[in-house]
Write a structure and sequence with these properties.
The complex is a heterodimer of chains A (95) and B (484). Chain A is mostly helical. Helix content of chain A is 32%, strand content 4%. In chain A, helix 1 crosses helix 2 (24-38). Classes of the chains: A mainly alpha (95), B alpha/beta (484).
Chain lengths: 95, 484
């Protein structure tokens, strides 16, 4: 798969990544090369093969649904770029 | 003190040859004096290390010391450490001080060990040369114009240069074994699910696993004893009993069946590395082992499958870095979309961006089956090859990396060439198998690693096989010039 400038712009948007205009051709080259490399998988017929999600085919363990964590909001929010009254601040999204 | 293994230091501490405080101070002095040449640490934690050492000495005086009490070690900067910066090698987390300890950190603390500092690494563990770190590349102590490997390059370089007796690392596609090979030390990636990943910043969740980087297999066994086991906080950790990994280290290798991977002796393999692996196999034959050639016919699918699975999972895992709750935030965002895009765009390096974009593409509508499902199918074929091989052999061997350490900058601009540095290590991650790298010689004064892959939960046998080899060779005892 060969990607062009508009493909990279679309992927960058989906990934919420700002990419410098000047870097787009380089990324288009890199990503095209990587996709070409991974497409070597297509040489092998896997029609009958069940996809493997876990090496030991383990299933998700479940636990009893009860509160086990204590409230550490202030401690956690001490890491945040911007908080007020226990809320994370971001630019206004609703006018 | 620093020329001793962790096991020897444990005996010295027990016999009172020196105190934990003296040992820790010695390493901290070495880090200040020698690490500027290597850049193996992102953060040295002198105050907390010394406080931990004094507490360990008090515990010992009270007769309450365990086998690892008072021994310092370094943690890869991917493990969250309460009160010490955890950057994951990224500008994104340059200001991040975790509010809790990773389970691996907690367990090693509970065993009495103390943290010397946090080691340098490829950004978010994405790299094979430690050149993608926001904090600059690490240099290989055997030749400072070459790379230490990655992504646990700081841990490997620090142990090789004896700036820590041991270190933790993580391995998603070879990130413990490849740097261990390039730096001439011992590295173990346990079975997927053997060691808790709670508090270990996620890269590719179906592949990531934590393990020790040490001078010897015996030291790795001691650390794994403390690290392994079920953790309620990690839903992928497996509820299986943890054996004493030191118990069978000395077991006889007579009759051991070693499978040699035919496909790993390909034209891409350095001739000197091939010779070193052959010489190691000759030693194993002298120890009574039998060597047979085996084939893993789908192993050529490993790198392609990995570069779908790992980027896909990374694009999902790294979506948590959004500039809202922790980590880097851009200046003056105009709206929420701008905040997300610029915070991520400004704080992630080029390799992380590449992988996020490859993963985003592979998971996007219309491409999911062709890439992600196809890769998971390839993954099962790769796994089944190993399952079949282990029906006739006890362990599998081959080179860890196709060449010794390469020059800084040599592959930095060519992602595909860089990805091929992990061509022999990736399959074990895709299959979830335990695997080690042990020092097996030198080519042009640069170390070579022998890879040993085991069956599921067979870490004790891997360590036994590595230990017996280390009893009859001295590659693992070599210390790079200038760091003796």
């Amino acid at each position: 798969m060969s990607l062009d400038k508009s493909d990279v712009e679309k992927i960058a948007h989906l990934a919420r990544l700002a990419i410098d205009e000047a870097d787009i051709p380089g990324y288009a080259d890199n990503l095209s090369n990587i996709l070409e490399m991974v497409e070597q998988m297509n040489a092998v017929d896997t029609t009958e093969v069940t996809p493997m999600a876990h090496p030991l085919d383990a299933v998700q363990p479940l636990r009893e649904d009860r509160v086990t964590e204590t409230d550490q909001r202030e401690r956690f929010q001490a890491q945040a770029p911007s908080v007020e009254d226990g809320l994370y601040l971001v630019p206004r999204v609703v006018e | 003190m620093h020329d001793k293994t962790l096991a020897e230091q444990a005996r010295d501490l027990e016999q009172g040859a020196y105190s934990s405080e003296e040992l820790t101070r010695h390493y901290l002095e070495r880090i200040s004096a020698l690490d500027p040449q290597l850049n193996s640490y992102i953060t040295a934690a002198a105050d907390s290390a010394l406080a931990g050492a004094r507490a360990a000495d008090t515990l010992r005086a009270a007769g309450e010391a365990g086998p690892l009490t008072g021994i310092p070690l370094a943690h890869k900067d991917i493990f969250c450490t309460d009160g010490i910066k955890t950057s994951c090698g990224s500008k994104m987390l340059d200001n991040f001080i975790a509010p809790y300890d990773a389970t691996v950190v907690t367990r090693l603390k509970e065993a009495g060990m103390l943290t010397l500092g946090k080691t340098n690494m490829d950004e978010f563990a994405m790299g094979s040369s430690n050149e993608t770190s926001f904090y600059g590349p690490v240099k290989n102590p055997w030749n400072t114009t070459t790379v230490p490997g990655g992504s646990s390059g700081g841990s490997a370089a620090a142990v090789a240069a004896r700036l820590a007796p041991a270190a933790t690392g993580t391995d998603t596609g070879g990130s413990i074994r490849q740097p261990a090979a390039l730096c001439g030390i011992t590295g173990l990636k346990p079975t997927y699910g053997r060691v808790s990943r709670y508090g270990m910043i996620a890269f590719a969740s179906s592949l990531d696993q934590a393990g020790p980087l040490t001078q010897t297999a015996e030291d790795a066994a001691l650390l794994l004893n403390a690290m392994a086991g079920f953790d309620l906080h990690d839903s992928t950790s497996l509820e299986r009993p943890v054996p004493d990994y030191t118990a069978d280290l000395g077991a006889d290798l007579k009759g051991l069946k070693i499978g040699l991977i035919k496909e790993h002796f390909d034209p891409g393999l350095d001739a000197g590395v091939a010779d070193a692996v052959d010489a190691a196999l000759a030693e194993y034959k002298k120890l009574g082992a039998e060597v047979v050639e085996i084939s893993l016919p789908n192993t050529h699918l490993s790198v392609p499958a990995y570069y779908v699975v790992a980027p896909a999972e990374c694009s999902s895992n790294l979506s948590r870095f959004d500039g809202v709750r922790f980590g880097y935030r851009c200046e003056n965002p105009t709206d929420l979309a701008d905040l997300y895009k610029r915070s991520r765009g400004e704080a992630f390096g080029p390799e992380v961006k590449r992988r996020i974009m490859v993963g985003t593409y592979a998971l996007s509508a219309g491409y999911y089956d062709a890439y992600y499902i196809k890769a998971q199918q390839a993954r099962r074929l790769i796994r089944d090859d190993f399952v079949q091989a282990f029906e006739s052999v006890d362990v599998i061997m081959g080179p860890t990396a196709p060449s010794p350490a390469f020059k800084l900058g040599e592959k930095a601009d060519d992602p595909i060439t860089m990805y091929l540095s992990d061509i022999y290590t990736i399959a074990a991650n895709l299959a979830g198998l335990p695997a080690m790298s042990v020092p097996a010689g030198f080519v042009n004064n640069l170390p070579v690693g022998l890879q040993i892959i085991g069956n599921y939960f067979d870490e004790a046998r891997l360590l036994n096989v590595a230990h017996r080899y280390q009893q009859v060779t001295d590659w693992h005892q070599r210390i790079p010039k200038g760091f003796e």
